[in-house]
Amino acid sequence: MASIADYVRTEERSFAELPLNEVDALIFGTLIYEDVARICPTLALDESDPESADGSFASRIRSFEPEHPLLWLRALWHPMMESISIADANQKLHQSTANEENDKPHEPQVVSVLDPSLTHALFQTCAKSPRFAGVRLGAVVEHVNRGEQTQFAAATFQLPDGRSRRNPTRKGTLVISFRGTDDSFIGWKEDFNMSFQYPVPAQRAASAYLDTVARLWAGPIILTGHSKGGNLAVYAAMNADAKVQRRIQHVYSLDGPGFPQEIVTSPAYRAIQPKVTKIVPSSSIVGMIFETPEPCRVVASDSDGIMQHSSHTWLVNGDQFVTEPDLSSSSQLFNERLNQWVVSLTPEQRERAVDALFRVLHANGATRLSDLMGNLPAAIPSMLGAYVGLTPEDRRHLTEAMAILFRAAATKRKPAATAGTSATEPATSPSDAPSDAPSDAPAAEPAPATDAIASAEGPNSNVTTAVSAPRYGSQVPTPTAPDSPNSTSSAA
């Protein structure tokens, strides 16, 4: 079976010949993890006043050039997005810069829990691809604020599928990609803050970003995002004004968290829901957080458990994903248990539990997940010390949450479909059993920390709040591009 990198290497049709599909959406949702802010045109985003952003109508009026009045008038009404092609961006990423102290070529940066070298290699592959090399990249925004506990990044890809032969990117489709959670505890804490805070700062930033891009540049809009980026894409779409929503062709949430129950039942969510496609791996964990009313497309992966979250492990056949008939029972059980735990607590208790979790994680001074996991044995004593220092109630809530997360992380995948075997045949692997079944071995490294914390706390009280688990895994037709002759209504 192929990967998204294999798809980029073999697909030579242009976006005019083959409109954007679900695999393309994942690729753009992955490219945003590359360290492009320092070499691509950026966008000065003001959440309180999107109209003040770079390139606003007022700023274009002030840019009048008497020597070129016709060009100025054209740019006034039909502004071009300041951008760079993926091919040129890749060249800039790799060229040596004399102003750097060591004058070394670009090296992959850790901006997410995805393997940065794989994302870097994907960017290089896209730069050589007939399909992706000419795609324009611009309007890059990166924002991290420890005080606000927020991490946000986004970029806009402009497809060369416009009607103008001389300039195919003019009024071409705008693919807005939101970055998921990075490697920092700030980003992860903001994700957990969604359990008691709505909206979180990154969601507000995503809404302002969409409003700004839609105001500045013409063309159809597609929103995409992997992990938290998928949640941001849906939030931005549901909070856009009606004029912008009419321009939105599709929204892709790629293993992104859902929303609280009161949000998914709101008129604003229901208005955008027909345009939303959510795709998750069979052992999804991140995508099972909170509620997802729309059916999910379940994609096959060549990896295990939590590692299925990596977009580089998703399997591709042609221009579609290899699908599974349903989520694994362990993934559904994780969703049910997590939602039970969330519902059983008040918002104040959730906030205290989240704060307690990150006090424990920060106990040894680590600020990034990779730092903690790279030195986990040495970090355990300080983490235990912080854990014991919590109140009994906070310890109990934290232990319940960590037990759910570690059990889910230890889940093994079903055997991946191989050549000649249908990916839609139900698997009977023992790994499809609930994650706390004997057949599921605990994860190699996290287990000691879990056991130590559990022994410090003692027997856990079971969560008894009964809630109905949402239905997942109902397969929906593969969404076709709106301009395709075979186009149907978007999956809901």
From TrEMBL:
InterPro entries: AB_hydrolase_fold (IPR029058), Mbeg1-like (IPR024499). Residues 414-492 are annotated as: Disordered. Residues 458-467, 475-492 have a biased composition (Polar residues). It comes from Bifidobacterium myosotis. This is DUF2974 domain-containing protein. It comes from the Bacteria. Residues 416-457 have a biased composition (Low complexity). Pfam families: Mbeg1-like.
